[in-house]
Structures are given as C-alpha cells and as structure tokens.
Amino acid sequence: MNQPPSLDAPARAQDAVNHDRLQASIAALAAFGGRADGGVSRETLTDIDLASRRHLVDQARALGCEVMIDDCANLFFRRPGRDNALPAVLTGSHGDTQPVGGKLDGAYGVLAGLETIAALNDAGIETLRPIEVVAWTNEEGSRFGPGAMGSSAFVDPSRLPGYLGSTDKDGVRFGDALQTALAQAPGLPRCAMQRPLSACVELHIEQGPVLERAGIPLGVVTGIQAVRWFTVSCHGVMAHAGTTPMDERRDAMAAAMPLAQKLYDYAASQSATQLRLTLGRWQVTPNSVNTIPGRVDFTVDMRCLDDGVLDGFEAFLHAQVAASQGAVTIERFFQRAPTHFPRPMLDLIQEAAGRASARAGLPAPLALTSGAFHDAMYLADHCPTAMIFVPSEKGISHNAAEATAPRDLFLGAQALAYTVTALANR
Ligand code: HGY
Ligand code: MN
Ligand code: MN
C-alpha cells in the first residue's frame, strides 16, 4: 500500500535506488547503436534511435508509467501522484548520441530518471505531484542543427517550424524524420508542448575533467556557458587540378585554411577568458582529388561563460567576412546565452548529493559550471531548473571511451531520486 507523502520520503527513495538495476538498464540501452569499440552511435531519429525509443517505452510501461509524445517527438514517461492536476516534476535528458558517442551522454539521465521511479515503486512512496521522465529529441544537433531542438521547442513551440527544414548530410529533412518518428509511435497519446512544470532536474555526466581531478563524485551545477554555432562558406571556382596555373585559381580551400588559422589564433589570444573554439565539420565540394574545391563549408562552435567574449569573437568573424569581398559568407544557426540555475534548486541538490556522498563516506559535492550545453538550459526559461553531475573518466566524452565509475553513477542516481521526490512532495 503506498504511504502518503512524508518528510522522509526523499531519503527513503534515495535508499531504494538499485545499483545493479541501473547498470543493467544502461547496458540494455547501449545495445541500440552499440559499437565494437564500446561506444554508441545512435543519432537522432535514425532507425536505431526509433528502436531505442520503443525499448524505453517498454521499460517505462513495465514501471507502471503512462507514456506520451509531443509534436517534436519528445517522449514523456509519467508516474501519477496523489494530485494529478498539479504540474509535474520533470527529470530525464536526451536519448540521442553523437555519431561516435558513449553509453552515458544523455542516456544516463533518462535511465536514472526511470530508476528513480523504480525506487519510488519499491519504497511504496506516493508523491503529491506526478513525476515525468523525458527523453528529448535531438539534443546533440550533430545530425540536424541546431542542438537541443526538442527541449527548446517544448519551451517555445514557435521554434519548431524553423527546425523542420534542417537537413542532414544525406539531405534528409528534420521535418520528414520527425513525421516518420511520430508515425511509428501509434497509440501514444499526443501531449501539449509548453505544459506547466513545477520544476526540472537533469542528471548528466560532466564530460570534462573537473570532478575527477578534484576526487569528488557529485557536482552541483550552478550554470551552463554560452554557445554559438556558425557555418562558414568559402566560395571559389571548380577547375582542373592539373591544367590550371596556380595564379589563375579561385581555390576555396586556399581561402578556408588561412581563415581557420586566424580563428584559432584569435581564440589563443583570448585564452584567459576560457574561450573555446571547435571547427568540427568540414564539407568540400566536389570533394574530388583532382578538382580544385569550388566551395568549402566548415562549422564554428564557440563557447564561453562570458557572452561578451563571444560578441567579440563574432565581430572578428564578421570582419573576416567583410574583408573577403564576397568570397566568404557565414550563417549563425545556434545561439544560447549563459544559463544560471536558481539558488533554492542548488541548495536542494546540495542537500540530496550531500546525503548520498556522506553515507558513502565520500567528499561533499562540488559546485561547478557546465562546459557542455544541456536541455536544462532551455527548461531554465520554463520552470525552476538545475543539474547534477557525476565525473567523466579522464574528462572524455563525445568519444567511444566515455566512462564513469559504477559507484559514481549509483551516487548520482541516488542524488536524483532524493531531489525529484522532495520536489514532488512540495
Ligand atoms: O555540444 C554539447 O555541449 C552537448 O554535449 N551536445
Ligand atoms: Mn548530453
Ligand atoms: Mn553530447
């Protein structure tokens, strides 16, 4: 018989988290897109991702959850509370991965959310509010840009139409992939976007080296740095590699390389600001060994806690474009200012993580900012939101070698269970 909400419910939920069950659920989901090198390739709305979603639906239903889907194919797994008219507490993360990703980025937050529900079930705890675990669509932004499409559209549905025309490297439109995903979720009730939520907590791996270097298993995330993405296009003229004299070429690569170096030099000049620059995706047209490139497109990912630094870098980039007299064009397709999580949420996570660490005889949680962006950056516009981190071994992520000690994954899930239960009884 479920107990009515009580003050010790968060502690009882925390103590009911099951280490082996969590490990098994991580291994089961990792099989969808599992790679021989131990990584996972499960880009958003691919057939493998759709199959993994069906697996998550089955897991959630086995826990007694209702399952819903919204217009951006975000999946919600809902555990009723005593008063289901109250806005739910949301946890979860994203189910998609990078082209060569790991088992934990996103998946861990979804599965720890389901583990929280399993722990509540085991402990016979009935919360006042409903709890929902979400699997967001396309957080990575690697197949279709920008990133965090599902969460940003949930918070502001007017964004969704602008996402539909985004295409992947094979020319597939996001809108078409989305329709296929929705068509493959027959019988799932469609829920509204922008629904009121009472709070949101996202558990995630740090994807950087801070917690591991500090020897601390749990992080209280105070905020997320700013991010901007651009496509830089260098325009030339295709011509024969053998017959065209060097001084008669308009070689797009000859324009792209020095520009890229100027951007790296600029970033190096700003190193004191912790500005980070990545030129991650290159496309050469026609990409032939013996044709002078007619066009070179490359992406710019710039990040910094100080948005003013990104303003300066963007101005530098525009100055290079102006100086090119039309040979270089740019398009900004993602921009997010820094996120700061509210103090009352940070205090609760400190309490939840502090109890889990103390009972394990480990150091108290560390406060830190996130170098990676997360869906929580948009939810922070919608309801009181915060994040919990666990360490990444050697700070590695977006790499098949991504790993976190099982002990730390367990502690993170314990901290989440406490936090979500406390919020669901407020
Ligand atoms: O790029 C990011 O920060 C996130 O991991 N997708
Ligand atoms: Mn992630
Ligand atoms: Mn990621």
Summarize the structure.
The chain has 426 residues and is an alpha+beta fold.
Can you put this structure into words, describing what you see?
The chain is α+β, with helices and mostly antiparallel strands and 426 residues long. 36% of the residues lie in helices and 21% in strands. The chain folds into two domains: 9-225 and 339-424, Aminopeptidase; 226-336, Alpha-Beta Plaits, CATH 3.30.70.360. Strands 1, 2, 3, 4, 5, 6, 14, 15 and 16 form a nine-stranded mixed sheet that branches. Strands 7, 9, 10, 12 and 13 form a five-stranded antiparallel sheet that branches. The longest helix has 19 residues, at 406-424. One manganese (II) ion binds next to loops.
Features:
binds (2S)-amino(hydroxy)ethanoic acid, binds manganese (II) ion, alpha+beta, nine-stranded mixed sheet, five-stranded antiparallel sheet, Alpha-Beta Plaits, 426 residues, 2 domains, Aminopeptidase, 16 strands
Tell me the CATH topology of the largest domain.
Aminopeptidase
Rg value: 23 Å
Structural class: alpha+beta
Strand content: 15-25%
CATH class of the largest domain: Alpha Beta
Strand segment tally: 16
Count of DSSP-assigned helices? 13
Helix amount: 25-40%
CATH architecture of the largest domain: 3-Layer(aba) Sandwich
Distance between the termini: 21 Å
* Biggest sheet layout: 9 strands, mixed
* Uncertain runs: none
Shape: globular
- Which ligands accompany this protein? (2S)-amino(hydroxy)ethanoic acid, manganese (II) ion
Mean pLDDT rating: 97
